[in-house]
Write a structure and sequence with these properties.
By secondary structure, this protein is α+β, with helices and mostly antiparallel strands. The chain has 2 domains: about 120 residues, no CATH class; about 140 residues, no CATH class. The chain is about 20% helix and about 35% strand. The strands form 3 sheets. It has a 5-stranded antiparallel sheet with strand order 1-10-11-13-9. Strands 2, 6, 8, 12 and 14 form a 5-stranded mixed sheet that branches. A 4-stranded antiparallel sheet has the order 3-7-5-4. Strand 10 and strand 11 form a beta hairpin. The radius of gyration is 20 Å and the shape is globular.
Length: about 290
């Protein structure tokens, strides 16, 4: 059975070179949820395969945020919109103790995922006393470049006729869609057997690079294609196994994301080094209800 996961394509830029803590003083000037509840998760039932506990994190319509069986470390990297490999520090419990979270913005909320993340940052500062230090350091990265000398793109990637920037702007302002068939303009990922397919519409090359920054690359990906405009695409590949989980059945002969990019999109990832935003958990305490 196909499992569909919707994920926002919006990327929050952290300030490069920032070294001071992002503490409660900054959070005092940030938007907040109208109501929020955080409590310890009930003990997860062991499964017969010995797999790790899976967390759940959802940004829902109307400014709602729910999370289950989630650690403070995961809440932090989701709040600051970075990958786990861009975050370090914190006591042992930060990555082990699990929590249930439910939060809601005030009535009439018409913001987007960036606004929800800003409110989550404030919530973590208020309830956990979370202090984060952001800085930049040189790290290995991947540069997204054209794979073919003639610059021709692959069959699964082509220029878009959809203005997703306008669609997202209308949604942020709370305006109704101009058409009942307005595109979703979000990343959609389906898993069938060992194959994951990532579909998107109206995405820039910089946005595609952000999508590729994740578990399968384990590096920040930077757009160096030089291509302007927006694109529609569908990339089919075999995802890397999650930590603690075995590879998907049939994945031995699968297509890696690196190969899929070249064959389907006409793009490739070139190893490079660049300054990358990284976060350190300076301090935190068990949540205050």
């Amino acid at each position: 059975m196909a499992k569909t996961i919707a994920a926002s394509l919006i990327w929050s830029c952290l300030l490069a070179g920032l070294s001071q803590p992002l503490d409660a003083q900054r959070a005092d000037r940030s938007p907040r949820f109208e109501v929020a509840s955080i409590r310890p998760s009930p003990r997860a039932e062991p499964n017969r395969f010995g797999f790790p506990v899976m967390s759940r994190f959802r940004i829902e319509p109307g400014g709602r945020l729910t999370a289950s069986q989630i650690t403070l470390r995961e809440l932090a990297w989701r709040a600051y919109d970075v990958q786990p490999f861009q975050m370090s520090g914190g006591a042992e419990w930060v990555g082990e103790d699990r929590f249930e979270l439910a939060a809601k913005a005030e009535d009439g909320f018409a913001g987007g995922a960036d606004d929800i993340r800003a409110m989550l940052q404030s919530l973590l500062a208020d309830r956990f006393g979370l202090v984060i230090r952001a800085e930049s350091m040189e790290m290995p990265v991947y540069a997204l470049v054209l794979a073919r000398r003639d610059g021709k793109l692959g069959e699964q990637l082509h220029p878009s006729k959809t203005d997703c920037a306008a669609v997202r702007a209308r949604r942020t302002r709370g305006q109704p869609s101009q058409a009942t068939d307005d595109p979703d303009c979000n990343l959609a990922m389906t898993l069938e057997g060992p194959t994951m397919t990532a579909r998107f519409v109206g995405e820039t090359m910089a946005g595609i690079a952000r999508l590729l920054t994740g578990p399968d690359t384990q590096r920040v990906v930077i757009d160096e294609t030089g291509l302007a405009g927006t694109f529609d695409g569908a990339l089919a590949f075999t995802p890397a196994p999650l930590p603690g989980f075995p590879p998907l059945p049939g994945s031995d002969n699968g297509t890696s994301i690196f190969t899929a990019l070249q064959e389907q999109f006409g793009l490739r990832l070139r190893s490079d080094r660049a300054m990358v935003n990284v976060l350190t958990i300076v301090s935190a305490q068990k949540p205050i209800e």
